[in-house]
Specification:
Elements lengths: L3 H8 L24 H14 L11 E10 L3 E10 L2 E2 L3 E4 L2 E9 L5 E2 L1 E2 L3 E8 L8 E5 L2 H26 L5 H6 L8 E9 L2 H11 L7 E10 L4 H10 L2 E5 L5 H10 L3 E4 L2 H14 L4 E16 L6 E12 L3 E6 L3 E13 L2 E2 L2 E3 L3 E6 L10 E10 L3 H19 L5 H20 L5 H10 L16 H8 L4 H12 L1 H10 L6 H14 L5 H14 L1
Parallel strand pairs: 10-11, 10-12, 12-13
Antiparallel strand pairs: 1-2, 1-9, 2-8, 3-7, 4-5, 4-9, 5-6, 5-8, 14-15, 14-21, 15-19, 15-20, 16-17, 16-21, 17-18, 17-20
Helix pairs in contact: 6-7, 9-14, 10-11, 11-16, 12-13, 13-14, 13-15, 13-16, 14-15, 15-16
GO molecular function: GTP binding; GTPase activity; translation initiation factor activity
Family: Belongs to the TRAFAC class translation factor GTPase superfamily. Classic translation factor GTPase family. IF-2 subfamily.
GO cellular component, one term: cytoplasm
Amino acid sequence: MLFSSPQSLLELNLVPEEWGGNTPMVPISAKKGTGIDDLLQAVAWVAEEKQLMANATKLAAGTVIEAHLDKKRGAVATLLVQAGTLRTGDIVSCGACCGKVRSLTNSAGRPVGEAGPSIAVQLIGLNAVPNAGDEFQAHTNDGDARKAADAAGEGLRAARIAEMSTTGSMVTLSSLATFDEDTDTLQRMNLIIKGDTSGVVEAIKGALQGLPQESVVLRYLLCAAGDITTSDVDLAAASSGMVVGFNLNPDEAVLSHAKRLGVTINTYKVIYNLIDDVKAAMEGKLRTIEERQPLGTATVKAVFGSGKKKVAGVVVDEGKLQKGAQMEVTRGKDTIVYTGKVASLRRIKDNVEEVQVGLECGVGADEWTSWQEGDVIKCYLVVTKSQRLEEARAATAVDVNSLSDRGRRRRPAQQQQRTSTRCEQQQQQYRNGSSSSRSGRQLAAISSCGCRRQQLHQQQLSQPAAGLSCKLQHCMAPAAAAAAVVRGAAAAAALCVAAGQWRPQPAAAAAAAAAAAGGGWCSWQVVMQHTAAAYEAF
């Protein structure tokens, strides 16, 4: 192992001193605790030889290691001074915060008047709690510090808005108007995260981002260091959110206020418990799924009775038959002729609740008497179960793959020729402006993609994409554009493929253009405008 290290250094054009070079190499062992003193001496020697010294006379600058809100002292930030000297009374900007240094405390907890390069101190005097990783800078006057803090704050807000727009977690009037918690659309869970330090809050956010969010997306309404306040409770009540605190003990006034508003405050000391509870809350928003639980199969050997009193005489081949359970009757090569409930089971002359394997019995069905010898009965129970996030992710992946496979199916050549001719005619009408109205010209341009019209399910009519599709004679291209505005360009592409379009690229381009122009939900005229332009370009 020791021999491989010099070899690796040679690959980087670093020659160890033992081999005639000028790169010091100090063997150490963290396991045995050897070589640490030699390493420190080597670092000091190289720094002295190369004169690697910080300028202690300039204005102080460095990085925030940790920060938290103290009830008595206010915002407390742990800083590492990397350049200059930080002194009590200096005016500093720290990320989006600023203030005057009231006190400095060293690692031993003793107050100090100044801190030079490579010294870590606790600073008190900022007007807010900075984020871990923020850079701080000392200034000559208060105005410069405020300008630097305002500029950093604008940058943080822009980055946060961009992130929320990308992840679909932005809270806007349009998103509140178009989002329906009762539909099968993407669910969102609002979170308010408070911790004792900013580093803890960032760590919690990072851990939560690892949860599957294909069906339920986490929306962070507030993530900050400090105690849980009544304002946090009000925000949670207004947005049906969840308040999560870490290493915090809420006041009695806050707890009573939360109880009055029906808001639950969850506090934790272990991050794994926090993740498990948030995951359980996310899974609670998933719709339940129905699964078949097979009970048994039987074969029809004879048919008895006449008219509406026909029953099937069967032999149970596997498992059992159960009265009240669901059954599926297949005939021939797996042709399903009936699906319904097992209305009655008779063994000899007695009505029974179930019949086990190997026994004969009579089976009756409600309002169905078309039994034939050789029919196969599959008996099963329909079980409703809750989904897990991992199962929802797998189901989403299967749905996307099935849509893609369906979209790849080609239409017959004769239909392709008819579509191509119609496309050329409609494109020419659009270029000549012969359509009766602008909307007509746009619809003609959209139709030129050759997308087939579909009758949408009645349950989907409340969704924005489906609503646009109905307004525009069930044309799937505007539905794709609307889907992009609501769910992103990926949803639009999937919808185009599902519609069996020949060239989904125009709809995807229109979707992206509409989303970029609207910045959220926009009117169907805007969607149509960008869709028509995209089809004309393609």
